[in-house]
Design brief:
It is a single chain. Strand 9 and strand 10 form a beta hairpin. This protein has helices at about 10-25, 40-45, 65-75, 90-95, 105-115, 115-125, 140-150, 175-190, 250-265, 295-305, 310-315, 395-410, 420-425, 430; strands at about 5, 25-35, 45-50, 75-80, 100, 155-160, 170, 195-200, 205-215, 220-235, 235-240, 270-280, 285-290, 335-340, 340-345, 350, 355, 355-360, 365-370, 375-380, 385-395, 410-415. The chain has an eight-stranded antiparallel β-sheet with strand order 13-12-9-10-11-14-21-19, with helices on both faces. A five-stranded parallel β-sheet has the order 3-2-1-4-5, sandwiched between helices. It is an alpha+beta fold. Helix 4 runs antiparallel to helix 5, helix 7 (about 140-150) packs across helix 8 and helix 12 runs antiparallel to helix 13 (about 420-425). The protein folds into three domains: about 5-105, Rossmann fold, CATH 3.40.50.20; about 130-200, Dna Ligase, domain 1, CATH 3.30.1490.20; about 205-444, ATP-grasp fold, B domain (D-amino Acid Aminotransferase, Chain A, domain 1).
Protein backbone atom coordinates (compact mmCIF):
# COMPACT_ATOMS: atom_id res chain seq x y z
CA UNK A 1 0.00 0.00 0.00
CA UNK A 2 1.11 3.58 -0.63
CA UNK A 3 2.69 5.50 2.23
CA UNK A 4 1.97 9.00 0.97
CA UNK A 5 -0.36 10.38 -1.73
CA UNK A 6 -0.45 13.86 -3.28
CA UNK A 7 -3.93 15.10 -4.18
CA UNK A 8 -3.80 17.21 -7.34
CA UNK A 9 -7.09 18.95 -6.70
CA UNK A 10 -9.04 21.19 -4.35
CA UNK A 11 -12.47 21.59 -2.75
CA UNK A 12 -14.75 18.82 -1.59
CA UNK A 13 -13.17 16.08 -3.70
CA UNK A 14 -9.75 16.77 -2.15
CA UNK A 15 -11.29 16.35 1.31
CA UNK A 16 -13.10 13.19 0.20
CA UNK A 17 -9.80 11.64 -0.95
CA UNK A 18 -8.03 12.71 2.27
CA UNK A 19 -10.71 10.91 4.30
CA UNK A 20 -10.24 7.71 2.31
CA UNK A 21 -6.47 7.93 2.77
CA UNK A 22 -6.83 8.41 6.53
CA UNK A 23 -8.98 5.27 6.71
CA UNK A 24 -6.26 3.38 4.85
CA UNK A 25 -3.44 4.76 7.01
CA UNK A 26 -1.91 6.78 4.16
CA UNK A 27 -0.34 10.20 4.62
CA UNK A 28 -1.57 12.98 2.33
CA UNK A 29 -0.15 16.05 0.65
CA UNK A 30 -2.46 18.89 -0.40
CA UNK A 31 -1.56 21.33 -3.14
CA UNK A 32 -3.14 24.76 -3.32
CA UNK A 33 -3.10 28.06 -5.14
CA UNK A 34 -2.41 31.24 -3.19
CA UNK A 35 -6.10 32.15 -3.21
CA UNK A 36 -6.89 28.78 -1.60
CA UNK A 37 -4.53 29.35 1.35
CA UNK A 38 -7.45 29.12 3.81
CA UNK A 39 -9.09 26.04 2.30
CA UNK A 40 -10.01 23.08 4.48
CA UNK A 41 -8.19 20.49 2.41
CA UNK A 42 -4.92 22.14 3.50
CA UNK A 43 -5.86 21.84 7.16
CA UNK A 44 -6.89 18.20 6.88
CA UNK A 45 -3.87 16.97 4.90
CA UNK A 46 -0.61 15.99 6.60
CA UNK A 47 1.41 18.35 4.39
CA UNK A 48 0.62 21.13 1.93
CA UNK A 49 2.46 22.90 -0.87
CA UNK A 50 1.53 26.13 -2.64
CA UNK A 51 1.84 25.51 -6.39
CA UNK A 52 1.04 28.93 -7.84
CA UNK A 53 -1.41 31.82 -8.20
CA UNK A 54 -5.19 31.63 -8.55
CA UNK A 55 -5.24 31.06 -12.30
CA UNK A 56 -5.83 27.31 -12.86
CA UNK A 57 -3.33 27.21 -15.72
CA UNK A 58 -0.62 28.37 -13.31
CA UNK A 59 -1.60 26.12 -10.41
CA UNK A 60 -4.02 23.16 -10.56
CA UNK A 61 -3.42 22.70 -14.30
CA UNK A 62 0.32 23.21 -14.07
CA UNK A 63 1.88 19.77 -14.49
CA UNK A 64 5.45 20.98 -13.69
CA UNK A 65 4.23 22.61 -10.45
CA UNK A 66 2.41 19.46 -9.33
CA UNK A 67 5.31 17.14 -10.18
CA UNK A 68 7.69 19.45 -8.33
CA UNK A 69 5.44 19.32 -5.26
CA UNK A 70 5.37 15.52 -5.49
CA UNK A 71 9.16 15.35 -5.67
CA UNK A 72 9.56 17.81 -2.80
CA UNK A 73 7.30 15.82 -0.47
CA UNK A 74 8.40 12.32 -1.51
CA UNK A 75 4.99 10.86 -2.33
CA UNK A 76 4.37 7.43 -3.87
CA UNK A 77 1.31 8.33 -5.90
CA UNK A 78 -0.84 11.19 -7.21
CA UNK A 79 -4.64 11.25 -7.12
CA UNK A 80 -6.19 13.69 -9.63
CA UNK A 81 -9.75 13.75 -8.27
CA UNK A 82 -12.16 14.99 -10.96
CA UNK A 83 -11.82 17.97 -13.28
CA UNK A 84 -8.51 19.78 -13.83
CA UNK A 85 -6.00 17.07 -14.91
CA UNK A 86 -8.08 14.01 -14.01
CA UNK A 87 -8.60 12.89 -17.62
CA UNK A 88 -5.36 14.25 -19.05
CA UNK A 89 -3.51 11.23 -20.46
CA UNK A 90 -0.30 13.23 -20.81
CA UNK A 91 -0.39 14.00 -17.07
CA UNK A 92 -0.79 10.29 -16.32
CA UNK A 93 2.23 9.51 -18.50
CA UNK A 94 4.34 12.21 -16.84
CA UNK A 95 3.41 10.95 -13.36
CA UNK A 96 4.51 7.44 -14.25
CA UNK A 97 7.64 8.73 -16.02
CA UNK A 98 8.68 10.50 -12.83
CA UNK A 99 8.12 7.49 -10.61
CA UNK A 100 4.69 8.40 -9.22
CA UNK A 101 1.74 6.05 -9.54
CA UNK A 102 -1.20 7.80 -11.18
CA UNK A 103 -4.35 6.78 -9.32
CA UNK A 104 -6.59 6.15 -12.28
CA UNK A 105 -6.63 4.18 -15.51
CA UNK A 106 -3.75 3.78 -17.92
CA UNK A 107 -2.97 6.65 -20.27
CA UNK A 108 -3.90 4.43 -23.22
CA UNK A 109 -7.35 3.74 -21.78
CA UNK A 110 -7.82 7.45 -21.14
CA UNK A 111 -6.88 8.23 -24.74
CA UNK A 112 -9.30 5.58 -26.00
CA UNK A 113 -12.22 7.18 -24.21
CA UNK A 114 -10.99 10.80 -24.33
CA UNK A 115 -11.55 11.05 -28.07
CA UNK A 116 -15.34 10.64 -28.31
CA UNK A 117 -15.18 9.61 -31.96
CA UNK A 118 -12.63 6.85 -31.38
CA UNK A 119 -14.54 5.76 -28.29
CA UNK A 120 -17.76 5.27 -30.24
CA UNK A 121 -15.96 3.48 -33.05
CA UNK A 122 -14.47 1.01 -30.56
CA UNK A 123 -17.85 0.50 -28.89
CA UNK A 124 -19.50 -0.21 -32.24
CA UNK A 125 -16.84 -2.80 -33.03
CA UNK A 126 -17.57 -4.41 -29.63
CA UNK A 127 -21.28 -4.65 -30.42
CA UNK A 128 -22.37 -1.91 -28.01
CA UNK A 129 -25.08 0.36 -29.47
CA UNK A 130 -24.22 4.03 -29.96
CA UNK A 131 -26.33 7.03 -30.96
CA UNK A 132 -26.69 7.12 -34.78
CA UNK A 133 -24.22 9.59 -36.30
CA UNK A 134 -21.19 10.04 -38.51
CA UNK A 135 -18.54 9.25 -35.85
CA UNK A 136 -15.77 10.95 -37.77
CA UNK A 137 -14.30 14.44 -37.58
CA UNK A 138 -16.06 17.13 -39.60
CA UNK A 139 -13.93 20.03 -40.77
CA UNK A 140 -16.33 22.27 -42.69
CA UNK A 141 -19.95 23.39 -42.99
CA UNK A 142 -20.76 21.77 -46.38
CA UNK A 143 -19.73 18.35 -45.07
CA UNK A 144 -21.61 19.00 -41.82
CA UNK A 145 -24.78 19.84 -43.77
CA UNK A 146 -24.52 16.70 -45.87
CA UNK A 147 -24.13 14.51 -42.81
CA UNK A 148 -26.92 16.25 -40.87
CA UNK A 149 -29.29 15.82 -43.81
CA UNK A 150 -28.44 12.13 -44.10
CA UNK A 151 -29.01 11.57 -40.36
CA UNK A 152 -32.12 13.77 -40.31
CA UNK A 153 -32.76 16.82 -38.15
CA UNK A 154 -32.65 17.49 -35.26
CA UNK A 155 -28.98 16.67 -34.76
CA UNK A 156 -26.43 17.56 -32.12
CA UNK A 157 -22.95 18.89 -32.82
CA UNK A 158 -20.33 17.71 -30.32
CA UNK A 159 -16.65 18.31 -29.64
CA UNK A 160 -14.52 15.23 -30.36
CA UNK A 161 -12.52 15.77 -27.17
CA UNK A 162 -15.41 17.35 -25.30
CA UNK A 163 -17.32 17.11 -22.08
CA UNK A 164 -19.45 19.27 -19.81
CA UNK A 165 -21.48 20.65 -22.69
CA UNK A 166 -18.57 22.57 -24.24
CA UNK A 167 -18.68 22.74 -28.04
CA UNK A 168 -22.15 21.19 -28.02
CA UNK A 169 -25.09 22.58 -29.99
CA UNK A 170 -28.54 21.23 -30.94
CA UNK A 171 -29.38 22.02 -34.56
CA UNK A 172 -32.81 21.85 -36.23
CA UNK A 173 -32.09 22.95 -39.82
CA UNK A 174 -29.40 23.92 -42.34
CA UNK A 175 -29.55 27.64 -41.55
CA UNK A 176 -29.05 27.06 -37.85
CA UNK A 177 -26.17 24.68 -38.58
CA UNK A 178 -24.40 27.36 -40.64
CA UNK A 179 -24.72 29.78 -37.74
CA UNK A 180 -23.64 27.58 -34.82
CA UNK A 181 -21.02 25.32 -36.43
CA UNK A 182 -18.17 27.89 -36.26
CA UNK A 183 -19.22 28.86 -32.71
CA UNK A 184 -19.10 25.25 -31.54
CA UNK A 185 -15.77 24.73 -33.29
CA UNK A 186 -14.18 27.73 -31.59
CA UNK A 187 -15.60 26.79 -28.20
CA UNK A 188 -14.15 23.28 -28.60
CA UNK A 189 -10.78 24.72 -29.62
CA UNK A 190 -10.63 27.03 -26.61
CA UNK A 191 -11.84 24.40 -24.14
CA UNK A 192 -9.94 21.35 -25.39
CA UNK A 193 -7.23 22.79 -27.66
CA UNK A 194 -8.84 20.90 -30.52
CA UNK A 195 -11.73 22.21 -32.61
CA UNK A 196 -12.70 18.82 -34.06
CA UNK A 197 -16.45 18.21 -34.17
CA UNK A 198 -18.77 15.34 -35.03
CA UNK A 199 -22.54 15.02 -35.46
CA UNK A 200 -25.10 12.65 -33.97
CA UNK A 201 -28.84 12.26 -34.13
CA UNK A 202 -30.44 14.30 -31.36
CA UNK A 203 -32.60 12.07 -29.20
CA UNK A 204 -35.51 14.12 -27.92
CA UNK A 205 -36.30 13.85 -24.22
CA UNK A 206 -34.01 10.90 -23.40
CA UNK A 207 -32.92 9.90 -19.93
CA UNK A 208 -29.24 10.06 -18.99
CA UNK A 209 -28.31 6.77 -17.33
CA UNK A 210 -24.79 5.85 -16.24
CA UNK A 211 -23.17 2.76 -14.73
CA UNK A 212 -20.39 2.79 -12.15
CA UNK A 213 -17.74 0.16 -12.80
CA UNK A 214 -14.58 -0.87 -10.95
CA UNK A 215 -11.88 -3.01 -12.58
CA UNK A 216 -8.56 -4.29 -11.29
CA UNK A 217 -5.35 -5.58 -12.88
CA UNK A 218 -6.44 -9.19 -12.46
CA UNK A 219 -9.24 -9.25 -15.07
CA UNK A 220 -11.98 -8.60 -12.53
CA UNK A 221 -14.59 -6.00 -13.45
CA UNK A 222 -17.75 -5.30 -11.46
CA UNK A 223 -20.67 -2.92 -11.89
CA UNK A 224 -22.40 -1.11 -9.05
CA UNK A 225 -25.80 -0.41 -10.54
CA UNK A 226 -26.95 2.65 -12.43
CA UNK A 227 -27.43 6.32 -11.67
CA UNK A 228 -30.09 8.49 -13.27
CA UNK A 229 -28.57 11.87 -14.13
CA UNK A 230 -31.39 13.25 -16.28
CA UNK A 231 -31.88 16.46 -14.28
CA UNK A 232 -29.50 18.76 -16.14
CA UNK A 233 -29.11 22.38 -17.12
CA UNK A 234 -27.13 23.13 -20.27
CA UNK A 235 -25.73 19.59 -20.21
CA UNK A 236 -24.50 20.04 -16.63
CA UNK A 237 -25.88 17.59 -14.07
CA UNK A 238 -27.78 19.03 -11.11
CA UNK A 239 -29.39 16.02 -9.41
CA UNK A 240 -28.43 12.36 -9.55
CA UNK A 241 -30.13 9.34 -8.03
CA UNK A 242 -29.66 5.61 -7.74
CA UNK A 243 -31.29 3.40 -8.70
CA UNK A 244 -33.11 4.97 -11.63
CA UNK A 245 -36.89 5.06 -11.10
CA UNK A 246 -37.42 3.72 -14.65
CA UNK A 247 -34.79 0.99 -14.95
CA UNK A 248 -36.14 -2.53 -14.39
CA UNK A 249 -33.99 -5.47 -13.21
CA UNK A 250 -33.88 -6.77 -16.80
CA UNK A 251 -32.80 -3.37 -18.13
CA UNK A 252 -30.21 -3.08 -15.36
CA UNK A 253 -28.62 -6.40 -16.25
CA UNK A 254 -28.47 -5.37 -19.91
CA UNK A 255 -26.87 -1.97 -19.31
CA UNK A 256 -24.43 -3.33 -16.71
CA UNK A 257 -23.27 -5.94 -19.23
CA UNK A 258 -22.76 -3.16 -21.79
CA UNK A 259 -20.74 -1.13 -19.27
CA UNK A 260 -18.48 -4.02 -18.26
CA UNK A 261 -17.94 -4.98 -21.90
CA UNK A 262 -17.00 -1.35 -22.68
CA UNK A 263 -14.39 -1.40 -19.90
CA UNK A 264 -12.99 -4.77 -20.89
CA UNK A 265 -12.75 -3.71 -24.56
CA UNK A 266 -10.08 -1.13 -23.66
CA UNK A 267 -8.43 -3.15 -20.83
CA UNK A 268 -9.68 -0.63 -18.31
CA UNK A 269 -8.57 -0.64 -14.67
CA UNK A 270 -9.57 1.68 -11.80
CA UNK A 271 -13.02 3.22 -11.26
CA UNK A 272 -14.94 4.62 -14.19
CA UNK A 273 -18.40 5.52 -15.37
CA UNK A 274 -20.00 4.41 -18.63
CA UNK A 275 -22.73 6.82 -19.71
CA UNK A 276 -25.77 6.02 -21.84
CA UNK A 277 -28.84 7.71 -23.25
CA UNK A 278 -32.14 5.85 -22.83
CA UNK A 279 -34.78 6.67 -25.44
CA UNK A 280 -38.55 6.56 -25.11
CA UNK A 281 -38.74 3.00 -26.43
CA UNK A 282 -36.28 1.59 -23.89
CA UNK A 283 -33.17 1.46 -26.07
CA UNK A 284 -29.78 2.27 -24.52
CA UNK A 285 -27.07 4.06 -26.49
CA UNK A 286 -23.46 4.44 -25.38
CA UNK A 287 -22.56 8.11 -25.03
CA UNK A 288 -19.13 8.28 -23.36
CA UNK A 289 -16.97 6.92 -20.58
CA UNK A 290 -15.62 9.08 -17.79
CA UNK A 291 -12.22 7.73 -16.79
CA UNK A 292 -12.15 9.13 -13.25
CA UNK A 293 -14.08 9.34 -10.01
CA UNK A 294 -17.44 11.05 -10.61
CA UNK A 295 -18.95 13.95 -8.68
CA UNK A 296 -22.00 11.78 -8.04
CA UNK A 297 -20.20 8.67 -6.72
CA UNK A 298 -21.73 9.06 -3.20
CA UNK A 299 -25.20 7.91 -4.32
CA UNK A 300 -23.70 4.61 -5.44
CA UNK A 301 -21.74 4.32 -2.20
CA UNK A 302 -25.00 4.84 -0.29
CA UNK A 303 -26.93 2.02 -1.98
CA UNK A 304 -24.05 -0.48 -2.12
CA UNK A 305 -22.13 0.27 1.08
CA UNK A 306 -18.89 0.25 -0.94
CA UNK A 307 -16.26 2.98 -0.49
CA UNK A 308 -15.43 3.62 -4.15
CA UNK A 309 -12.47 5.93 -3.48
CA UNK A 310 -10.80 3.42 -1.17
CA UNK A 311 -11.26 0.69 -3.78
CA UNK A 312 -9.71 3.00 -6.38
CA UNK A 313 -6.64 3.60 -4.22
CA UNK A 314 -6.21 -0.07 -3.36
CA UNK A 315 -6.43 -1.11 -7.02
CA UNK A 316 -3.81 1.51 -7.96
CA UNK A 317 -1.50 0.03 -5.32
CA UNK A 318 -1.70 -3.35 -7.06
CA UNK A 319 -4.32 -5.04 -4.91
CA UNK A 320 -7.19 -7.04 -6.42
CA UNK A 321 -10.81 -6.00 -5.97
CA UNK A 322 -11.97 -6.78 -2.45
CA UNK A 323 -15.49 -7.60 -3.68
CA UNK A 324 -16.99 -9.78 -6.38
CA UNK A 325 -20.05 -9.11 -8.51
CA UNK A 326 -22.10 -11.60 -6.50
CA UNK A 327 -21.36 -9.54 -3.36
CA UNK A 328 -22.85 -6.35 -4.82
CA UNK A 329 -26.39 -5.74 -3.56
CA UNK A 330 -28.38 -2.58 -4.20
CA UNK A 331 -30.34 -1.53 -1.16
CA UNK A 332 -32.56 1.52 -0.70
CA UNK A 333 -32.53 4.74 -2.69
CA UNK A 334 -30.15 7.71 -2.75
CA UNK A 335 -30.42 11.21 -4.24
CA UNK A 336 -27.71 13.84 -4.60
CA UNK A 337 -28.20 17.58 -5.08
CA UNK A 338 -25.22 19.62 -6.27
CA UNK A 339 -25.20 22.94 -4.46
CA UNK A 340 -23.53 25.69 -6.51
CA UNK A 341 -22.62 29.27 -5.60
CA UNK A 342 -24.89 30.67 -8.30
CA UNK A 343 -27.94 32.93 -8.48
CA UNK A 344 -30.87 30.99 -10.00
CA UNK A 345 -32.87 34.24 -10.27
CA UNK A 346 -30.15 35.85 -12.39
CA UNK A 347 -29.52 33.20 -15.07
CA UNK A 348 -27.35 31.22 -12.63
CA UNK A 349 -24.69 33.90 -12.50
CA UNK A 350 -21.73 32.81 -10.31
CA UNK A 351 -21.92 34.17 -6.78
CA UNK A 352 -18.45 34.15 -5.22
CA UNK A 353 -17.83 35.92 -1.93
CA UNK A 354 -17.79 35.51 1.82
CA UNK A 355 -20.08 33.08 3.62
CA UNK A 356 -21.49 35.13 6.50
CA UNK A 357 -23.42 32.31 8.15
CA UNK A 358 -23.52 28.57 7.59
CA UNK A 359 -25.55 25.68 8.94
CA UNK A 360 -25.00 22.26 7.38
CA UNK A 361 -27.94 19.81 7.56
CA UNK A 362 -27.73 16.46 9.28
CA UNK A 363 -29.89 13.80 10.83
CA UNK A 364 -30.77 10.27 9.69
CA UNK A 365 -30.01 9.55 6.06
CA UNK A 366 -28.10 12.75 5.26
CA UNK A 367 -24.49 13.08 4.07
CA UNK A 368 -22.94 16.40 3.04
CA UNK A 369 -19.63 16.55 1.16
CA UNK A 370 -18.30 20.09 1.23
CA UNK A 371 -15.24 22.27 1.76
CA UNK A 372 -17.01 25.43 2.92
CA UNK A 373 -17.26 26.85 6.44
CA UNK A 374 -18.43 30.04 8.14
CA UNK A 375 -16.53 33.12 6.88
CA UNK A 376 -14.94 31.11 4.07
CA UNK A 377 -14.46 33.22 0.95
CA UNK A 378 -15.49 31.43 -2.24
CA UNK A 379 -13.07 32.40 -5.01
CA UNK A 380 -14.23 33.32 -8.50
CA UNK A 381 -11.44 31.40 -10.22
CA UNK A 382 -12.91 27.90 -10.03
CA UNK A 383 -16.03 25.79 -10.50
CA UNK A 384 -19.03 27.00 -8.52
CA UNK A 385 -19.76 23.64 -6.83
CA UNK A 386 -19.58 24.19 -3.06
CA UNK A 387 -21.42 21.19 -1.61
CA UNK A 388 -23.18 17.93 -2.35
CA UNK A 389 -26.17 16.85 -0.29
CA UNK A 390 -26.88 13.12 -0.37
CA UNK A 391 -30.13 11.72 1.03
CA UNK A 392 -30.54 7.99 1.60
CA UNK A 393 -33.62 6.02 2.66
CA UNK A 394 -35.37 2.69 2.11
CA UNK A 395 -37.56 4.01 -0.71
CA UNK A 396 -37.41 6.80 -3.30
CA UNK A 397 -40.37 8.57 -1.69
CA UNK A 398 -38.61 8.54 1.70
CA UNK A 399 -35.34 9.72 0.13
CA UNK A 400 -37.17 12.68 -1.42
CA UNK A 401 -38.70 13.56 1.94
CA UNK A 402 -35.27 13.30 3.54
CA UNK A 403 -33.79 15.61 0.88
CA UNK A 404 -36.57 18.15 1.34
CA UNK A 405 -35.77 18.27 5.04
CA UNK A 406 -32.05 18.68 4.37
CA UNK A 407 -32.54 21.49 1.85
CA UNK A 408 -34.81 23.31 4.33
CA UNK A 409 -32.09 23.02 7.00
CA UNK A 410 -29.19 24.05 4.76
CA UNK A 411 -28.52 27.72 5.55
CA UNK A 412 -25.89 29.67 3.61
CA UNK A 413 -25.91 33.46 3.99
CA UNK A 414 -23.72 36.04 2.28
CA UNK A 415 -23.87 34.50 -1.20
CA UNK A 416 -26.53 33.18 -3.56
CA UNK A 417 -26.86 29.41 -3.98
CA UNK A 418 -28.92 26.92 -5.96
CA UNK A 419 -30.64 25.56 -2.84
CA UNK A 420 -33.99 27.30 -3.64
CA UNK A 421 -33.85 25.93 -7.18
CA UNK A 422 -33.29 22.39 -5.91
CA UNK A 423 -36.31 22.78 -3.63
CA UNK A 424 -38.44 23.59 -6.69
CA UNK A 425 -37.21 20.50 -8.51
CA UNK A 426 -37.60 18.11 -5.58
CA UNK A 427 -41.14 19.31 -4.83
CA UNK A 428 -42.28 19.14 -8.46
CA UNK A 429 -44.99 16.45 -8.92
CA UNK A 430 -43.28 15.17 -12.09
CA UNK A 431 -40.02 14.60 -10.22
CA UNK A 432 -41.80 12.86 -7.38
CA UNK A 433 -43.41 10.49 -9.86
CA UNK A 434 -40.06 9.83 -11.56
CA UNK A 435 -41.28 11.33 -14.83
CA UNK A 436 -38.03 13.04 -15.77
CA UNK A 437 -35.79 13.42 -18.80
CA UNK A 438 -32.96 15.71 -19.92
CA UNK A 439 -35.47 18.45 -20.89
CA UNK A 440 -36.98 18.59 -17.39
CA UNK A 441 -35.34 21.89 -16.39
CA UNK A 442 -36.42 23.62 -19.61
CA UNK A 443 -40.05 22.87 -18.71
CA UNK A 444 -39.80 23.62 -14.98
Amino acid sequence: MFKKILIANRGEIAIRIIRACKDLGIETVAVYSDIDANSLHIRFADQSVCIGPASPTRSYLSIPAIISAAELTGVDAIHPGYGFLAENSRFAEICEGNGFKFIGPSSSAMKSMGDKILAKQSMLSAGIPVVPGNHEKIENIPKAKKIAQSIGYPVIIKAALGGGGKGMRIVNNDNQLERVFPIAKEEARVSFRDGSLYIEKYLEKPRHIEVQIIADDYNSCISLGERDCSIQRRHQKLIEESPSPIVTPTMRKKIENYAKKAAQTIDYTSVGTVEFLLDKTGNFYFMEMNTRIQVEHPVTEAITGIDIVKEQIKIASGKPLSIKQKDVHLKGHAIECRINAEDPENDFKPSPGKIEHLYIPGGPGIRVDTHIYGEYIIPSSYDSLIAKVIAYADTREQAIQCMERALDEFLIEGIKTTIPFHKRIISDPRFKKGKIDTSFIQNL
